[in-house]
DNA sequence: TTGTAAGCGTTATCAG
DNA sequence: CTGATAACGCTTACAA
């Protein structure tokens, strides 16, 4: 605390002194986009002085004066899920392009409120937040900031979302086309819209085809690798097994795949598995994971753009945005139901 | 721009008015750790007023006044590599505990300088940066901030690092113990200390055992899944194949494993593979990846702690810190060299 | 013990 | 066109 950790840097005042103009003039010259009405000669002097001194604007000070920070917050439950990483990456990219910073906050599921308030204390201009965390926080807190929800068309807040119902539908259609009739679902219990819709789209499509998921085949498990693993293990212990399983996300599916390998169940010969998200890892396992690709980076990028647009003056658009399309990527973990089963 | 995107919030002035004291008094009451010499009665009034008004300090303003931002920057080349994610996660955690924010910057390998300067413009109190990015930036820029390098004991800047040489050594010892003699290495070409040391530790240990890596078995490839994949594919096309391969990181190893699967090479029967990092995915593939566990989260956490300690007044410690221990995790991708080969 | 004054580095509003 | 002057919200001497 003794010596300031931040070295004293060149300020507009220094530049002004050097250029022989007033300090605000420097500010004008340096900021006004369409060169404000400043004598060309003066401008040149200021610019040169700034250049020579190596002037760098102090964004914090600017923020204070403008009552905005040119920073976005992004809150996710956990960094472990590559899906969120892609969202973050997409958002960070467009934010950076617009000179916005990104404050990262990983709640770890604990005290999301504290994380949010910490962000707001920093005068965040807006916040990108995942559905689960948002729902764990009083809306009065969210109301204090511009907020964009990821994958949860709430009607309360603006958001970007993928077509989760379609994801479930495509997964179902794929399995149906392959002849599967004994089908299971593994997904998280929490009330996250995207997950619910994936499930609903899946179940409804099956139903429309005259199929249903017996309750024993409907497994609630955390959307993590170990969640998927454990759920699949349980599924495999029963004497009547499904011939195909849809997992609400890829992490889950990879865990399930792992459980099959451990149990000596051959995928896709004995069992088909299909995930959702299409994280990078989906192509690194063998066989490669069949999944429904969700444009995570694009979700993040759009969320950021939406926020930036609002900050630029546009009215926040609470209407549910167009759902980003998802598409099935058939790879190696799904196959036609084996002949010896199809007659069951 | 018309209406400020940030809602006007309660300020110390509001609190002061309500408590019937001066604004600085509020500041004193709210901050002084050992309750500054303010009448207990006054303090109570102020605290109550703050409470009633729902006062939240404006960290930006405080930062401006104190010439520090209570924020850390963290710069990584890419979010794709789970290793960095863990580093970030570890750092974010300890930062958050100390009320520090984390500004995330993904360079994507492009214009690291711009990213750094953007961070510095925000009066970052310190920065955690990976070795590769740091080396791509003039040291004069780094000198403007408190910096901690990840996995690069440069002597120039403080840093935290894992025992990369030991990682290589352990990998080599493991393979040697399994009887391997035709051994390959796949690793990145860039001059990143940790990668170099992993390689060196590996090569030297082999050499000490009277083994060497023929140049054809020394493959330079990006430390990514596709890098590992491609390198392995090339290795497999030759008629003389190694019996074991050490990949400089897990991503690489997973790519290599994938290439084997695609080529019908059975791991670990026909070929052993060993990675380095122990990312979560290592346990999700089949067979599970044998690797050397590097405490990535701990690296991030220590980096943050080191930075915070410096900010609290401690002199930055440039001496190479104790290397964090790594340890081999023998799993499924390594096995004794097959009998029909050991005689070659 | 507390209020006054100054300053952090900008931007914004005016007179000149 | 340009330069004072006043914020922005807070901290930190320094007076009172």
Structural class from helices and strands of chain A? alpha/beta
Shape estimate of chain A: elongated
Compute the separation of the termini of chain A in Å: 75 Å
Low-confidence stretches of chain A: 1-5
Order of helices and strands of chain A: HHHHEHEHEHHEEHEHEHEHEEHEH
Strand order of the largest sheet of chain A: 7-6-8-9-10-11
Beta-strand residue fraction of chain A: 5-15%
The residue fraction in helices of chain A comes out at 40-55%
User: What's the mean pLDDT score of chain A?
Assistant: 91
Let me know the number of strands of chain A: 11
Query: So what's the oligomer here?
Result: homodimer
For the sheet with most strands of chain A, the description reads: 6 strands, mixed
Most extensive chain-chain interface: A-B, 69 and 69 residues
Radius of gyration of chain A: 26 Å
User: Can you count the helices of chain A?
Assistant: 14
What does it look like?
- Two copies of one chain form a homodimer.
- Chain A is built from 14 helices and eleven strands.
- Chain A is of the alpha/beta class.
- Chain A has helices spanning 12-19, 23-31, 40-53, 59-66, 82-97, 112-121, 131-135, 139-142, 164-177, 193-208, 225-237, 250-263, 296-311, 339-342; strands at 71-76, 101-106, 126-130, 146-150, 159-160, 183-187, 218-220, 244-247, 272-277, 290-293, 327-329.
- Mean pLDDT of chain A is 91; it is low at 1-5.
- The termini of chain A are far apart.
- In chain A, β1 (71-76), α5 (82-97) and β2 form a beta-alpha-beta unit.
- The first copy, chain A, has a six-stranded mixed beta sheet, sandwiched between helices. Chain A has a five-stranded parallel beta sheet with strand order 2-1-3-4-5, sandwiched between helices.
- In chain A, α1 packs across α2, α5 runs parallel beside α13 and α11 packs across α12.
- Chains A and B meet through α4, α5, β2, α6 and α12 of A and α4, α5, β2, α6 and α12 of B.
- Chain A binds a DNA duplex (16 and 16 nucleotides) through residues 9, 11-13, 21-25, 27-28, 31, 36-39, 42, 57-67.
């Amino acid at each position: 605390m003794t010596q300031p950790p931040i070295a004293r840097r060149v300020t507009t005042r220094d530049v002004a002194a050097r250029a022989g103009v007033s300090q605000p003039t420097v500010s004008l010259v340096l900021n006004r986009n369409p060169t404000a009405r400043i004598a060309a000669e003066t401008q040149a002097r200021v610019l040169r002085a700034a250049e020579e001194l190596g002037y760098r604007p102090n964004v914090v000070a600017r923020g204070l004066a403008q009552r905005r920070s040119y920073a976005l917050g992004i809150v996710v439950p956990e960094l472990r899920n590559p899906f969120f990483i892609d969202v973050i990456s997409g958002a960070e990219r467009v934010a950076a392009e617009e000179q916005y910073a990104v404050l990262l906050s990983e709640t770890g599921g604990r005290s999301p409120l504290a994380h949010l308030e910490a962000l707001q204390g920093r005068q965040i201009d807006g916040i990108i937040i995942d559905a689960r965390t948002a729902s764990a926080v009083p809306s009065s807190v969210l109301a204090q900031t511009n907020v964009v929800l990821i994958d949860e068309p709430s009607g309360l807040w603006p958001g970007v979302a993928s077509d989760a119902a379609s994801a479930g539908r495509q997964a179902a259609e794929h399995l149906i086309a392959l002849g599967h009739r004994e089908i299971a679902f593994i997904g998280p219990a929490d009330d996250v819209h995207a997950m619910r819709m994936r499930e609903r789209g899946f179940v409804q499509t099956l139903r429309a085809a005259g199929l249903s998921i017996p309750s024993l085949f409907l497994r609630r498990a955390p959307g993590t690798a170990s969640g998927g693993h454990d759920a699949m293990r349980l599924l495999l212990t029963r004497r009547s097994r499904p011939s195909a399983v849809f997992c609400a996300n890829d992490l889950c599916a990879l865990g399930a795949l792992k459980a099959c390998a451990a149990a000596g169940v051959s995928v896709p010969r004995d069992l088909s598995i299909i995930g959702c998200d299409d994280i990078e890892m989906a192509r690194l396992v063998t066989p490669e994971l069949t999944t429904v690709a969700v444009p995570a980076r694009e979700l993040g990028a759009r969320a950021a753009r939406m926020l930036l647009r609002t900050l630029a003056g546009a009215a926040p658009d609470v209407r549910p945005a167009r759902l980003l399309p998802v598409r099935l990527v058939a790879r190696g973990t799904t196959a036609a139901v084996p002949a010896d089963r199809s007659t069951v």
